[in-house]
Amino acid sequence: MSLFITFEGIEGCGKSTQIGLLKSFLKRIHKSFLVTREPGGTGVGERIRKILLSSENGGMEPMAELFLYAASRVQHLRQVIVPALREGKIVLCDRFADATIAYQGFGRGIDLAWIEQINAHTMEDIKPDLTFILDLPVEEGLKRALKRIERRTVKEDRFEKEALDFHSRVREGYLYLARKEARRIILLDGMKDKQTLHREILFHLPHGFMG
Ligand code: TMP
What we know:
The structure is a single chain. By secondary structure, this protein is an alpha/beta fold. It is 54% helix and 13% strand. It has helices at residues 15-28, 43-53, 62-86, 97-107, 112-123, 138-151, 164-180, 194-203, and strands at residues 3-8, 33-37, 90-94, 130-135, 185-189. A five-stranded parallel β-sheet has the order 2-3-1-4-5, sandwiched between helices. Helix 2 (43-53) packs antiparallel against helix 3 (62-86), helix 3 runs parallel beside helix 5 (112-123) and helix 4 (97-107) packs antiparallel against helix 5 (112-123). The longest helix is centred in the middle third of the chain and has 25 residues, at 62-86. The termini are close together. It binds thymidine-5'-phosphate. Residues 11, 37-39, 53, 69, 94-95, 99-100, 103-104, 159 line the site of thymidine-5'-phosphate.
C-alpha cells in the first residue's frame, strides 16, 4: 500500500528526529519506503536548495523564492515521489507544499489564493495522505535550530536568520492549515519528548498499516 506522509513545522520543531524514528520503525517491520525532502530530493532540487538556503542570497525577492520552491517541487514529484508511490512505497517527505503556504504566504505575505493556484498546477492531483505538523513556540524552535547551525559545516541558514515575527507568522500559517485541513493534517505538540511524539505518530498511521 503506497502512502505519502509529509512532516512540517517551524525551524527546530523536531521533524528530522521524527522522520528518523519512523524510518527505523518501517525498517523493523520490513516496509518499503523512501525518505526525501524539499527543497531538494533530486539533483536539480538539491542545487535549487543551495540557492534558496544560502545566506549569500539575502536579497532574494519573495516571488523568486516562490518559483524556486515550485521548480524544486515539480522536479521532485515527477522524478521521485510519483514513481515511488507507483511502486507501492511509503514516502516520508521532510516539508512539502504546506511549507509554501506557511513560509511564502504567511511569512512573506504573498497572496494565498495565488500560491494555492501555483501549488495546484505543481502538484497536479498528488496530495499527501497524511501530514504531521510539529508545533512549538517560536523561541524554543529557534533556540534548537541555532544550536544545530553551530554544529553544521554547510551553511543553510538564510531562513533561521529571519526575525522572530517572521517565524511567528509561519507558525500561524501552520496552525491555520491544521484547522483548514483537519482530516489530512495532524497537529502535534512539539514540546513533548521524542518517544511520546513517535508513539503518537504511529497511532495516526492508517489502520491495517502494520499488517
Ligand atoms: P529544512 O531546513 O527544514 O529542510 O527547510 C528548508 C527551509 O526552506 C526552511 O526554512 C523552510 C523553507 N521552505 C520554504 O520557505 N518554502 C517551502 O515551500 C519549503 C518546502 C521550504
